[in-house]
Design a protein that fits this description.
Strand order of the largest sheet: 1-2-3-4
Distance between the termini: 65 Å
Helix content: 25-40%
CATH class of the domain at 11-85: Alpha Beta
Order of helices and strands: EEEEHH
CATH topology of the domain at 11-85: Nuclear Transport Factor 2, Chain: A
CATH architecture of the domain at 11-85: Roll
Radius of gyration: 27 Å
Strand content: 25-35%
Number of strands: 4
Number of helices: 2
């Protein structure tokens, strides 16, 4: 495994959040001028077919002049999600009985129902009834 090299003058403070297959790194770093900025990195683990694994990484840089706007929008967006969907995680991974909503309106349901009836009718018309005595 490769060794990650750090420049001690740049790394100031770090925290790690482990979240399943994802790990988030929050790092305060220093610019050449001695000011601070934040990097937020996401590392996600994937497994190859042969059992070996690899990581995909994404990083954003957040500078002091953007802290207030970023913080306000992050708070607004997370509040919206929680207000709309609550804190419970809704996903195929987290719920064994998860069923994806396939229809967005009554019209879609009606269209799907009519389509299913047509498919059943087509299947009946194309079906050949075979009696085992005939074989």
């Amino acid at each position: 495994m490769g060794e990650r090299k750090y420049n001690d003058a740049e790394d100031i403070f770090s925290k790690i959040l482990r979240a399943g297959r994802r790990t988030y790194f929050f790092d305060v770093r220093s610019t050449k001028a001695g000011d601070y900025y934040l990097t937020i990195s996401e590392s996600k683990k994937f497994t190859n077919e042969d059992g070996t694994f690899y990581f995909k990484k994404h990083k954003i840089y957040l500078y002091k002049e953007d802290f207030e706007g970023f913080s306000n929008l992050l708070e607004e967006m997370t509040k919206y999600i929680i207000d709309e969907k609550g804190l419970e995680v809704i996903s195929e991974i987290h719920q064994k009985d998860f069923k994806r909503e396939e229809f967005t309106s009554e019209t879609d349901k009606s269209d799907k129902s009519n389509s299913n009836e047509k498919d059943e009718k087509d299947e009946k018309e194309n079906f050949t009834d075979v009696d085992f005595d005939d074989i």
